[in-house]
Amino acid sequence: MKIIGTVILMLVFVSCGGVDAPPKSTWSKKQLEEKKVIVKEVMEVHDITMAFMDKIHNSIAELEDLKSKQDSIIPNVDSAIQLLEIADELMMNWMRNYHEPKDTIDYASAKQYLLKQKVAIQEVEVETNTALDFSSKFLSNANDTLN
Question: Dihedral through CA 80, CA 83, CA 89, CA 92, nearest 10?
């Protein structure tokens, strides 16, 4: 009985067919290396910029706190908050939309995509730095004025 069950089970596995092997790369070693370099450059900018996300959230909280403590309207506080929120959203959108291309697609298309992503993440970096610089100066001036 056990033998019949084993044979039936083996027949089921064999009839289901084997798992297809993943497609093999059509890229040359030079192309693979070039992709690796571009991906590394993209991710370095991402990692540097991503490290500022906590600072963005802390700055937003400080600005919101400053805004709530003041009876009078502080000029530009909403602008500073908005710049930080935009920088944060740009990073989140970039991360949601970025997908490292597989080396089974057309190399030229993959390279073009990666170069566009490099420019896009560099723009996120600029927006992040601009927002943090503005909010830092704003908070410094506001604290000097209040003290």
Answer: -90
Q: Which amino acid is at 115?
A: L
* Phi–psi pair at 12, nearest 5 degrees: -65, -45
For the chain, report the end-to-end CA distance as a whole number of angstroms: 88
pLDDT in tens, the chain (147 residues): 667 656 565 655 656 655 566 678 889 999 999 999 999 999 999 999 999 999 999 999 999 988 887 655 677 899 999 999 999 999 999 999 999 999 999 999 999 999 999 999 999 999 999 999 999 999 888 877 766
Give the span between the Cα atoms of 73 and 68, in whole angstroms: 9
- Give residue 113's Cα distance to chain centre: 15
Pair of tokens at residue 104: 């089974």
